[in-house]
Write a structure and sequence with these properties.
Blueprint: E1 2-6, H1 11-22, E2 26-31, E3 51-54, H2 60-66, E4 72-75, H3 86-112, E5 120-126, E6 134-136, E7 148-150, H4 156-160, E8 176-177, H5 190-209, E9 213-218, E10 220-222, H6 235-244, E11 258-259, E12 261-263, H7 264-276, E13 283-287, E14 293-294, H8 295-305, E15 317-319, H9 331-334, H10 344-355, H11 362-374, E16 378-380
The structure holds nicotinamide-adenine-dinucleotide.
Nicotinamide-adenine-dinucleotide binds next to helix 1, strand 5 and strand 10.
Length: 386
C-alpha cells in the first residue's frame, strides 16, 4: 500500500509518516517546506525511507503527480496563522482538498480502475471550526435558562473592556460553555472557515463520488517537532521558552479560558483508526484529550514540571479572534474503539525532552511575538499596563 502525506515534513504529518512506515506502507511526502514553518529547510526528522517531493498543494500538476500510485491520502498540509491574507487560507486548505478529490476522480474515470484508485482520504480539520461554540445560561431566573445558544463572536469593544465571558443576551449574566459536538460549527476566522470548507468538500464530494473520506477535527495538538518558528504556534512552546529564560508565561485574557490539549500519539492513533474503519467513512470526528484545563492551570503545571517557581503573568492582553472556551466531546470517535491515552504529564515530558535537543530558540519566539503585535493581532485592554 502506498500512502501520500501532504505536509509530511510538519509536526503532525511527520509523526504520521513514521507510523505508516512502521506499519509497512510505502510513503510519499508532499511538502513545500513553508519557510514560516521550516526556516532552516528540510527538517532532519524526514525519514530517508519516505519519498520526499517538494511541492505546493496549490499546484494541480504537482498534486496530480503526487497522487500517482497512491491508495491512501492524509492531507495535513495547511496554512495556519492569524495573519490577514485571507485568500491564502482558502487556496491552501480548501481548494487543495477539492483538487485531491477532483484528481482522484479524474484517475478513476481515465481507466486507472477503482481497484488501483485511492481507498481513503483523511483530512486534517480543526476544533477552530466551532468558533465560540455553544453556550448555555445557568441563571435560574433567565427566560433562556438551559437553552443551548450559538455564541456570537465576542466584540472588540467587550474585549477592550476586559469582559472575557460570553454574556447571556436575555439576562446579562455570564454563560457556561457546552462540550463541542460534531453536528455543530460556527467558524469565525479565515483559517476556521477554510477548514470547514475543506471538511465539506472532502466528506460531501467524497460521498457523492464514492471516494471514502473522513475529516478529523483536532483539538490543540502537542508533542515533539511542533514548529519552533511559526507565529501561530503551540502554547507549550511559548510558555516553555519563557520559563527556560526564567520569565513568567504571559497569559491572555484572565487565564480561565478552558482548552483541551491532545498528545500527538493520540492524534496519530485517531488517523490510523479512521483509516482502517469503514464506519468512519464520510463522517467528521473530534480528536481531543477528553479533558479540559484552564490556560492558567496549564501554565502553573508546566512551571512545576520544569522545576521553576514562577507564577504566570496576566497583563490583560487578548488576541483578536481567540475563542473563550474550546473543549471537544470525543465520544463519537470513542465509539470506533479509539480513546485518548496520554495526558498533560506525558505531553510535557515528551515535549521537554525534545526541546532539550533543540538549543534555545528564544530569539525566534520574540520575533514572532513582535510581528503579531505589529500586525495588530495581539492587543491590550484599555485600562491595563504593559
Ligand atoms: N497542531 C495543531 O494543534 C492542529 C490543531 C488543529 C488542526 N491542525 C491541522 O493539522 C494539520 C497539520 O498541522 P501541523 O501542526 O502539523 O502543522 P505544521 O505547520 O507543523 O505542518 C504543516 C506542513 O505543511 C506544509 N505546508 C504548508 N503549506 C503548504 C503548501 N501550500 N503546500 C505543501 N505543503 C505545505 C508545511 O511546510 C509543513 O511542513 C494542518 O492541517 C492543521 O490545520 C493542527
Amino acid at each position: 500500500m502506498k500512502a501520500l502525506v501532504t505536509g509530511g515534513a510538519g509536526f503532525i504529518g511527520s509523526h504520521l509518516v513514521d507510523r505508516l512506515l512502521r506499519e509497512g506502507y510505502d510513503v510519499r511526502i508532499l511538502d513545500n517546506l513553508e519557510p514560516r514553518v521550516h526556516p532552516r529547510g528540510k527538517p532532519s526528522w524526514v525519514p530517508g525511507e519516505a519519498e520526499f517531493v517538494r511541492g505546493d498543494v496549490r499546484d494541480l500538476e504537482v498534486m496530480r503527480r503526487a497522487l500517482d500510485g497512491i491508495q491512501v491520502v492524509f492531507h495535513e498540509a495547511a496554512y495556519q496563522d492569524y495573519m490577514p491574507d485571507f485568500s491564502k487560507f482558502f487556496h491552501v486548505n480548501s481548494v487543495s482538498t477539492a483538487a485531491i478529490l477532483e484528481l482522484i476522480l479524474e484517475r478513476t474515470r481515465s481507466g486507472a480502475g477503482i481497484g488501483a484508485g485511492v481507498e481513503k482520504v483523511v483530512v486534517a480539520s480543526s476544533q477552530a471550526v466551532y468558533g465560540e461554540g455553544q453556550y448555555c445560561c445557568r441563571n435560574l431566573d433567565c427566560p433562556r435558562h438551559g437553552q443551548p445558544t450559538a455564541a456570537p463572536g465576542r466584540s472588540e469593544e467587550q474585549l477592550r473592556r476586559g469582559v472575557w465571558d460570553l454574556i447571556c443576551a436575555a439576562c446579562g449574566r455570564p454563560m457556561t460553555n457546552l462540550p463541542l459536538r460534531e453536528a455543530y460549527h460556527n467558524p469565525r476566522n479565515a483559517y476556521a472557515i477554510s477548514k470547514l470548507a475543506q471538511e465539506l468538500a472532502a466528506v460531501h464530494l467524497g460521498q457523492l463520488h464514492g471516494i471514502p473520506t473522513v475529516a478529523l477535527r483536532y483539538s490543540i495538538v502537542q508533542g515533539p517537532r511542533q514548529s519552533l518558528y511559526n507565529q501561530y504556534s503551540g502554547v507549550c512552546r511559548i510558555f516553555c521558552m519563557r520559563l527556560l529564560n526564567d520569565q513568567p508565561p504571559i497569559i491572555y485574557e484572565d487565564g480561565l479560558q478552558k482548552r483541551d490539549y491532545t498528545h500527538i500519539k493520540d492524534v496519530v492513533e485517531a488517523n490510523m483508526t479512521v483509516l482502517k474503519e469503514v464506519r468512519a467513512d464520510y463522517r467528521v470526528f473530534n480528536v481531543g484529550s477528553g479533558r479540559e484545563i484552564t490556560v492558567r492551570d496549564y501554565a502553573v503545571k508546566l512551571a512545576e514540571k520544569m522545576g521553576k517557581a514562577i507564577t504566570p503573568m496576566i497583563p490583560g492582553s487578548y488576541r483578536v479572534g481567540d475563542n473563550r472556551h474550546s473543549v471537544s466531546d470525543v465520544s463519537r470517535l470513542r465509539e470506533l474503539g479509539w480513546q485518548p491515552a496520554f495526558g498533560l504529564d506525558r505531553i510535557f515530558d515528551d515535549y521537554l525532552s525534545w526541546l532539550d535537543t533543540q538549543g534555545n530558540p528564544a530569539t525566534y519566539l520574540q520575533q514572532a511575538e513582535a510581528a503579531m503585535r505589529a500586525q495588530g493581532v495581539i492587543r491590550q485592554v484599555e485600562n491595563s499596563q504593559g
